Amino acid sequence: MRISALAATAGLPVATVKFYLREGLLHPGLASSATQASYDESHVRRLRLIRALTGAVGLSVQQARTILDLVDEPGDDLYATLGRAVSALPPAAAEPAGDEASADDPYPRARHALETLGQVYDPRFAAVAQLESALEAAESAGLPLSHDRLLAYGRSLREIAAYDLERMPQGAREAVEYTVLGTALYEPVLLALRRLAHQDIAARRELAG
Amino acid sequence: MRISALAATAGLPVATVKFYLREGLLHPGLASSATQASYDESHVRRLRLIRALTGAVGLSVQQARTILDLVDEPGDDLYATLGRAVSALPPAAAEPAGDEASADDPYPRARHALETLGQVYDPRFAAVAQLESALEAAESAGLPLSHDRLLAYGRSLREIAAYDLERMPQGAREAVEYTVLGTALYEPVLLALRRLAHQDIAARRELAG
After folding, report:
1. What distance in Å separates residue A35's CA from the closest CA in chain B?
2. Residue A75 half-sphere exposure, CB side, CA atoms within 13 Å?
3. Do A191 and B194 touch (CB under 8 A)?
4. pLDDT tens digits along A81-132
5. What is the C-alpha separation between A168 and B201, in angstroms, rounded?
6. Chain A neighbours among B 154-173 (CB < 8 Å)?
7. What is the pTM of this model?
């Protein structure tokens, strides 16, 4: 198809598609003449990915490029690639701070929580800093996460995470795409479902009481 | 204590505490002379709540006021009050849109998902619009939430929600505070824990494989 048909299929202005081509986010079409190129399903798919990253996921073009580069060149160490790709997603990791943090132990709350759950603690992974900030915020609001709550949340989220990983596609490129989009796009679904489950349980009690 | 000691205890500038007093977010102290007032633990507690709402939760002063008003006057229908308080939290509900939405059925994806889960569907509740947007975003990125995934996520999040509600304090004011802060402040904890569970499961496979 021509660029105009590609743009229409992807639901984007032609100028935007040309911009992605110039920036190298979208691979060139097959030249069909000196001034025209032909595009296929791989371009439609790529545009859908770019649109998701810069739209729903909320990345800048530069941040999207980091992830697209990992999709294009997943390398041999898929585990490290997936870690880097997820670390490129929002929220951006905050600087380690807090009274109890030190250069030796920048994420004491997250480290303790992960040790309690018996999980890998790898401070290079952005979600560790994210957990530290979240635990610190809850603590300073007077609602520290109790040991018991950590275990309850940890157990349920592990079920979700296991479900996610069981369904990861085989190919490396597909695995990176699935991990990035599945992490980012299902997060708002999870939060909405928790709030709606609160509402449902409360409504049943209300009716019962 | 005097206002300077109150500010120091709360970790806020005196000017900020005076601003909250003027705005009526913080209740006045007990007048101890024509120009001085005395503050107690209730003021420290209130400032911690205001700070959490306008800081970690990210509300504007006006949005925080909506929630503080519900804490102060929870009324007789606690269920409705909790619903209003949670609906005042981010993310702000998007306008119903999407091809399949209509005035009669503005949230078709969310309605279908809640019916599948056997949960209450009440479109006045903001999380319904939030779920609709989240499902729509996943769908247009080519990663629609499957029936099976919905059931898996729904089951695990219901466990979390049941845990949350079992621990809700008895008093109405305390219940509103707990619900608002517990909803908002534990959400980033939940998302970080999911990402870290992915990492942990993937790391174990890597080691095993």
Report:
1. 31
2. 12
3. no
4. 999 999 999 887 666 555 555 778 899 999 999 999 999 999 988 999 999 9
5. 12
6. 154-165, 167
7. 0.91
